[in-house]
Amino acid sequence: MTAEAPDAARRAVAAFVETFGAAPRYLVRSPGRVNLIGEHTDYNDGLCLPLAVGLELCLAFSPAEEAGALIEVFSEDREAPARVHLPPPALSASGPPGRAARAQAGWAGYVEGVVAAMGAAAGAGASRGWYGSLASDLPAGAGLSSSAALELAVARACAVTWRRDWDPVAAARLAHRAENHWVGAATGLLDQLACAASTAGHALRIDFRDLTMLPVAVPDSVVVAIVDTGTRRELVTSAYGQRRAECVRAAAGLGVASLRDLGDHLPADAADRLDPVELRRARHLVTENTRVRDVVAALARSDLARAGAVLLDGHRSLRDDFEVCGPELDAAVAACRTAPGCHGARMTGGGFAGCVLALVDAQSADAFAGAVLGDYRAATGRDGVVHLCRPVGGTSLIPVQEHLPRTTNDSMKESGQE
Ligand code: GAF
């Protein structure tokens, strides 16, 4: 089936009203992301081209009246709230704290880690608590950055409450520190930057060597179709760390600090200096950076056929050279290729499970979705979900008023709170 229009904002506000008995002061929306091209390049100083999508997490919150209070976040699908006492816990660059220090596991650990990272930046300003309710339309573990969306939403709530200017790049870096040093997931900065710094209608070309960013318009004639294969992975325990280590070994074997330094070609003697696994990893990185440049150029001239062909190349590289594909991801890409209006498709995100994306003519989007889901089911016996997306802007505050449940809205009008 194709997905319903998301309404996380309305659910977050309704949950807040039900839990706290009043309307929230603020509402944050924080999007998920897909990566059009440039996979596993972020931790290799490379290039990538993500975009934020309208599947999002929303956090309704109010600052506490008293300083020195608590941060407390309820989630619609968890019984226990995340609680962080102020002053924020200390975040160490030496690695994730042990279980005793990192009191909360799962989603609450992300809340705790971001409060710690934002608190370190805010210093004595991090004295006031806040309380909130969140709702999400982002499936966890599907490769759409539900974690980064949560991190950035919490960062935004802290910034509002502690009266800090909102700098998307600085916030992304702090959220990334929390993920690396508190949660203990050794990921790159791609997800946080895409969630924080994307602009509507555009993908974001990021150069991880110097963090320069360039919005790249995605032609109005296409949608980005996300095909959720229904398979899930756990980033902390996946082969992600192993791939990172293989890239480091490949760079060392070729005498460069990072694989980006190789430019557009492997050295002629690369096969003599690397083992076969390292050679394949290095080849993916070198060709993937070139593919990012190719897709940026193709989008600039609205050459969707070329952009789609490069996506398909990228998929083959992730499958055969970087070896992070899986049978369901491969079956979903095969289903996309033959579906109406499809220019190209690839797996997206860390890999092994989750989602594929396709560039699809907007006019053919519904026919595309129907064909893909039928073929995917025939190939795997699984039901997928298609989300038809256009690029949206990064984490932002949105008006509370239009998302209030009708009864609350009416009583606020009556009591003159508008
Ligand atoms: C995951 C990681 F979190 C990112 O940093 C990035 O490496 C991606 O996999 C692969 O491109 O989403």
TrEMBL record:
Domain GHMP kinase C-terminal span(s) in chain numbering: 296-372
Keywords: ATP-binding, Carbohydrate metabolism, Galactose metabolism, Kinase, Magnesium, Metal-binding, Nucleotide-binding, Transferase
Molecular function GO labels: ATP binding; galactokinase activity; metal ion binding
GO annotation, biological process: galactose metabolic process
Domain Galactokinase N-terminal: 15-63
Pfam family, one: GHMP_kinases_C
E.C. designation(s): 2.7.1.6
Domain (GHMP kinase N-terminal): residue spans on this chain: 110-196
InterPro entries: Galactokinase, Galactokinase_CS, GalKase_N, GHMP_kinase_C_dom, GHMP_kinase_C_sf, GHMP_kinase_N_dom, GHMP_knse_ATP-bd_CS, Mevalonate/galactokinase
GO cellular component: cytosol
SUPFAM superfamilies listed in its UniProt record: GHMP Kinase, C-terminal domain (SSF55060), Ribosomal protein S5 domain 2-like (SSF54211)
UniProt family annotation: Belongs to the GHMP kinase family. GalK subfamily.
PANTHER family: GALACTOKINASE-RELATED, MEVALONATE KINASE/GALACTOKINASE
Name listed for the protein in its UniProt record: Galactokinase
Organism, scientific name: Pseudofrankia inefficax (strain DSM 45817 / CECT 9037 / DDB 130130 / EuI1c)
